Amino acid sequence: MTIRHLKTFCAVCEEGGITRAAEKLCVAQPSVSQTIGELERYYGVSLFDRVGRRLVLTPEGERLRVKAQEAIASFSEFEEAARDTKARHIIRIGSSVTAGQMVLPRLISAIEATLDRVECCAIADSAAAVEQLVEEGSLDFALVEGSVSRALAAEAFSSDRLLAVCSAEMKINNTLSPSELVSLPLLLRRRGSASRDLLDERLSALGLKAQPKLSSSSNSVLLAAAREGLGVAVLPEALVAAELAAGRLKEVRIQGLELSRRWFAVRRQDKKFTPAQQQAYELLFTLPFVEN
Asked: Distance (Å, rounded) from C-alpha 229 to C-alpha 185?
């Protein structure tokens, strides 16, 4: 059975007969009769009673007429949605949590303001999580910082560094060694985040390991905890700049611990961008806030 069968059935109902339905559908009368016969035989029901030259809906036919109209309406909605989807371009972008705060909103705004009939669908999660989604093909590309999975193609678009910060009131030396840092109450991102992975990697190279007092997937939570004097947080410089300038936080310099990093746009090695996806991807590298 096809949507043509249902449309023919409804046309016969609306026009009150085979002849007028055939005229409405611009088909031969025998074709309409054959289609109604196919419906009745397929479902084993009698849709019409033949009263002289008239067709009168049976109770079963009346009930199925309502369902046929609903199915036709749903099919029409599907067709409209399909045409609209074809006309619109969906760009699926992922980002790490930090990139979600610092880069992603500006990129989405720029894409939707610059490209016609483009919609962005975005997700911000840990760097490991969004890289996995890119590998699976659920995202077109993603923005992450730090190290990148070798399975992905990566292109650097910016750089920054992490700072160790604490409350301006906290009694602590302004300069510490890495071993002194790990002995303090630390406020760190959870494992799997780019910030935490970078810190762990650099400490491990020195034979050290961080044991955080508080770990969180949110930079904002760590920032608030640092302001309250709960410990030392390691956060991106751009996210703490305002707090440092206002004197609510102070930087703790860590001698011999390099925490600079690059930011990457990542995609599958075999990813073939559509023209719209390619334009959205390239737009990232033209935004004024990006410092290569």
From this structure: 10
* Secondary structure of 110-128 as H, E, C letters: HHHHHCCCEEEEEEEECHH
Q: Are residues 69 and 134 in the same domain?
A: no
Residues 100 and 202 in one domain: yes
Closest residue by Cα to residue 143 from 194, 94, 102, 198: 94
Cα→Cα distances 213→45, 126, 184, 185, 195, Å? 72, 20, 9, 5, 16
The answer to the question of residue 146 being in a domain is yes
Could you tell me if residue 272 is inside a domain?
Answer: no
Residue numbers of the domain that contains 30 = 3-86
- Taking only the tens place, the pLDDT of each residue in 44-57 is 999 998 887 778 89
Cα separation, 240 vs 233, in Å, equals 10
**Which H or E run contains 166?**
strand 152-167
pTM (whole model) above 0.70: no
CB atoms within 10 A of CB 159: 13
Please indicate, yes or no, whether residues 18 and 108 belong to a single structural domain of this protein. Answer: no
